[in-house]
């Protein structure tokens, strides 16, 4: 009697063990397939040269417009209608802005083109004067012809860029077509796409993957929106101030300062370079222009550091400043300017993953959400 | 199912009409969403997640951090508790059937550790509703969020009443501490000789807090009381 019961129990246990092993194996297979699929999608959209710029731009635009779409949804507007209305409004705003700003920008480009030779001659003369002075002191530099070499290098770089112009033009054309399509899809179908991808996540890891993806998307959304708003405010400040003080190329200076501003720490310095070049090389301007340009950039930077950054960006990135600086330098070292811009979001994703890892190791120390 | 027949292709590209119908009917029949109309149920179904489980598959484990609750769309789920005197042993607390839900505490609890383990009994399809989904709904449709939270509070208050009844029932019975080798206070206060409930002790470490084991009489008495409460509700 006992032996029959024992053998039945052994068989049941064996079956249970086999079933558990099969479930575990399937979970691992599913996890690997899920990871491969995510990598494949990432690879197709982020590493294909034709798609990467459009994808990055669409994601940035998605994060910019998602809060606005959410706001419309809260007021009872359907998501599709909210997306359509937003795009129509955006096209109208862009058209109106172009109508009003194009004459100024056109004027700036024309005067920049006209002044190109003049600037080039001025820079050549000044550099040659310095070189001759140095050559008088150090005989080694007599036949070095540093200025000529520098100008040859600049001309080569310019012609390289000219060679790549058709490629750049085709990329811009591709972006013009793909960015609105991708952005619309993301705005309208992001929840559906996310849920379909999450269906592939294994059951045991589902809650963890969902929680992580939610936190990362939220953090990135907040960061991108904050950075863009910050860049727009900087652009407006610099353009307005330069416009009021009648400094040439006001729009160009403002836009450049805004574009470079998201580069942590070095951005404001890089953004100020064209301003100083204008101050030094523009012969029509009085000597005070250097002071005013210095004042504009310092003022914009102080407003950014004291008000905009703490209110908008610092609340989103919860990483120690030293880690931010190190990550920015490492990003710059390995991936150039794009690496510097991407360093902070990447480090803040790493921070989320690290928090999750620590909460797994010490569940009592860190509440997750 | 861990690797069900529709995995990968159907999950991403396939039409999911059947799944959508299953989700909608599951949500409609649930008490938590009883205040929502058809349009809101349809909207809600874009947030929730349909998951398929194999027989015996773990849905979640006790003490694990939880993200939300599950509704049983198909099949049955076993809820088990770790035996306090033996960490490897699990006691079956209850079996939940189609239409029931579980794990709702994780939806609102800050620390959200699962208080019991859940296992699939047979092929099970569950609809998961998680904290991020609730937060998104509260953000985008505040009225709908309030309706869900109100119903959720009703469920929790009902369960709290049941728990209070269980505790009240327990205090009527007496505890024996004759084998207890740990500190005498405070366990030596409520003793008489009825012996329907007993404290069990960790033999490896007698100083540990003793575990209460319900005897069958108390268990049936509590179950009857709970049935009465449910009827009254």
Q: What's the helix and strand layout?
A:
The complex is a heterodimer of chains A (369) and B (233).
Chain A: H1 2-47, H2 52-74, H3 79-137, H4 146-199, H5 203-244, H6 250-260, H7 267-281, H8 288-313, H9 321-361
Chain B: H1 9-13, H2 17-29, H3 38-44, E1 49-53, E2 58-60, E3 68-83, E4 86-96, E5 101-102, H4 105-108, E6 117-130, H5 131-140, H6 142-172, E7 175-176, E8 197-200, E9 211-214, H7 216-232
Parallel strand pairs in B: 7-8
Antiparallel strand pairs in B: 1-6, 2-6, 3-4, 3-5, 3-6, 8-9
Helix pairs in contact in B: 5-6, 6-7
Describe the structure.
The complex is a heterodimer of chains A (369) and B (233). Chain A is mostly helical and 369 residues long. Chain A is built from 9 helices and no strands. In chain A, helix 1 (2-47) crosses helix 2 (52-74), helix 2 (52-74) crosses helix 3 and helix 7 packs antiparallel against helix 8. The mean pLDDT of chain A is 79. Chain B is an alpha+beta fold. Chain B has 7 helices and 9 strands. Chain B has helices at 9-13, 17-29, 38-44, 105-108, 131-140, 142-172, 216-232, and strands at residues 49-53, 58-60, 68-83, 86-96, 101-102, 117-130, 175-176, 197-200, 211-214. In chain B, a hairpin with a 2-residue loop joins strand 3 (68-83) and strand 4 (86-96). In chain B, helix 5 (131-140) packs across helix 6 (142-172). Chain B starts with 8 loop residues before the first helix and ends with a helix. Residues 174-178, 184-206 and 208-213 of chain B have low confidence and may be disordered. Chain A binds chain B through residues 16, 19-20, 22-23, 26-27, 29-30, 33, 37, 70, 73-74, 191-192, 195-200, 202-204, 206-207, 210-211, 214, 359, 363, 367-369, and chain B through 2-3, 7-8, 11-12, 46-47, 49-51, 53-60, 63, 65-68, 110-113, 128, 130-132, 139-142.
């Amino acid at each position: 009697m006992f032996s029959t019961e024992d053998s039945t129990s052994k068989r049941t246990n064996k079956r249970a063990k086999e079933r558990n092993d099969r479930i575990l194996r399937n979970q691992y297979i599913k996890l690997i397939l899920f990871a491969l699929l995510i990598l494949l999608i990432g690879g197709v959209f982020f590493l294909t040269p034709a798609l990467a710029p459009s994808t990055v731009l669409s994601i940035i635009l998605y994060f910019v417009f998602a809060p606005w779409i959410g706001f419309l949804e809260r007021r009872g507007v359907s998501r599709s209608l909210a997306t359509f209305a937003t795009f129509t409004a955006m096209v109208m705003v862009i058209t109106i802005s172009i109508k009003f700003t194009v004459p100024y920008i056109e004027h700036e480009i024309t005067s920049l083109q006209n002044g190109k030779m003049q600037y080039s001659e001025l820079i050549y003369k000044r550099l040659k004067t310095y070189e001759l002075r140095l050559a008088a002191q150090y005989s080694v530099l007599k036949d070095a012809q540093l200025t000529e070499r520098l100008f040859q290098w600049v001309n080569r770089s310019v012609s390289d860029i000219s060679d790549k112009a058709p490629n750049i033009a085709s990329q811009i054309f591709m972006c013009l077509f793909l960015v609105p399509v991708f952005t619309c899809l993301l705005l309208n179908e992001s929840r559906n796409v996310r849920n379909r991808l999450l269906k592939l996540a294994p059951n045991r890891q589902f809650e963890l993957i969902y929680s992580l993806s939610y936190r990362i998307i939220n953090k990135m959304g907040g960061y991108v929106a904050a950075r863009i708003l910050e860049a727009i405010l900087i652009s407006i400040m610099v353009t307005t101030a330069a416009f009021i003080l009648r400094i040439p190329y006001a729009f160009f200076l403002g836009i450049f300062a805004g574009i470079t501003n998201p580069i942590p720490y070095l951005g404001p310095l890089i953004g100020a370079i064209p301003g100083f070049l204008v101050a030094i090389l523009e012969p029509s301007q009085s000597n005070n222009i250097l002071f005013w340009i210095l004042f504009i950039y310092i003022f914009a930077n102080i407003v950014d550091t004291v008000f905009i950054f703490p209110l908008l960006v610092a609340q989103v990135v919860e990483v120690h400043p030293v880690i931010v600086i190190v990550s920015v330098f490492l990003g710059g070292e390995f991936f150039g300017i794009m690496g510097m811009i991407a360093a902070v979001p990447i480090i803040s994703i790493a921070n989320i993953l690290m928090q999750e890892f620590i909460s797994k190791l010490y569940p009592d120390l860190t509440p997750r959400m | 199912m861990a690797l069900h027949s529709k995995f990968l292709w159907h999950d991403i590209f396939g039409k999911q009409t059947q799944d959508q119908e299953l989700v909608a009917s599951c949500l409609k029949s649930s008490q938590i969403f009883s205040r929502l109309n058809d349009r809101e149920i349809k909207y809600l179904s874009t947030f929730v997640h349909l998951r398929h489980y194999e027989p015996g598959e773990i849905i979640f484990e006790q003490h694990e951090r939880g993200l939300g609750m599950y509704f049983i769309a198909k099949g049955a789920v076993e809820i088990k508790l770790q035996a306090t005197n033996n960490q490897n042993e699990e006691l079956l607390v209850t079996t939940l059937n189609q239409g029931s839900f579980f794990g709702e505490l994780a939806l609102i609890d800050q620390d959200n550790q699962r208080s019991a383990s859940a296992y699939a009994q047979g092929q099970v399809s569950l609809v998961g509703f998680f904290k991020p989904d609730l937060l998104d709904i509260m953000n985008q449709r505040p009225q709908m969020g309030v309706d869900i939270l109100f119903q959720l509070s009703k469920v929790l208050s009902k369960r709290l009443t049941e728990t209070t009844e269980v505790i009240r029932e327990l205090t009527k019975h007496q505890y024996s501490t004759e084998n207890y080798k740990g500190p005498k206070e405070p366990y030596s206060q409520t003793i008489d000789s009825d012996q329907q409930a007993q404290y069990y002790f960790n033999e490896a470490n007698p100083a540990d807090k003793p575990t209460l084991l319900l005897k069958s009489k108390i268990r049936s008495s509590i179950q009857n009381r709970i049935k009465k409460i449910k009827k009254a509700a």
